[in-house]
Design goal:
The chain is built from 4 helices and 9 strands. By secondary structure, the chain is an alpha/beta fold.
Length: 218
Amino acid sequence: MYSVKEAFYTLQGEGGQAGRASVFCRFTGCNLWSGREQDRATAACTFCDTDFLGTDGQNGGRFADAEALAAHLTALWPVQDGAGEKVATPYVVFTGGEPLLQLDEPLIAAMHRQGFEVAVETNGTLVPPPGIDWLCVSPKGATELAVTGGDEIKLVYPQQAAPPERFQRLDFGHFFLQPMDSGPMGGRDNHVGATVTYCLAHPQWRLSLQTHKIAGFD
């Protein structure tokens, strides 16, 4: 059984795949925060801006098995020409909450059978199943990483308990800093400036902006 908050077709807004057409599947649940505001102050991650409670979002629901969810997600990918063929490689992003609480080998295999590349955006505290094509780790606070390598690390900045120096020697193909949208230093505008300054001083890191918020798409 898989519980999905929402699923939708859009452009990836962040990181190394920014601008790519994607089907997003947001699972319910997270291991770092309950999702309830009354628990935020004591959570391992205090700055999350995502609703991952319940299954009442766009195209959300409960799915009995991997084939059912894969068919549901595949239907969100557009047919791109008159012959009914999909020209671009279909791409699905599993996110949350924390997607690795639910994503497993059968679902990855089912998406591959549908022709999709499979991406995951995880907080890195759980070991991922094999078969993921693009693995993005976004560390949160002082939590210990179970994943120390992948395609990209996307660190929300600044986090007092998660300075970039802590991650700079890990085995990732790309290192991104993404300005926090709220929290210390007065909000996103100030965080963008601080993030740019850090990237200029430490060119291992690249700037990642949430282009979906800038351009106004989900």
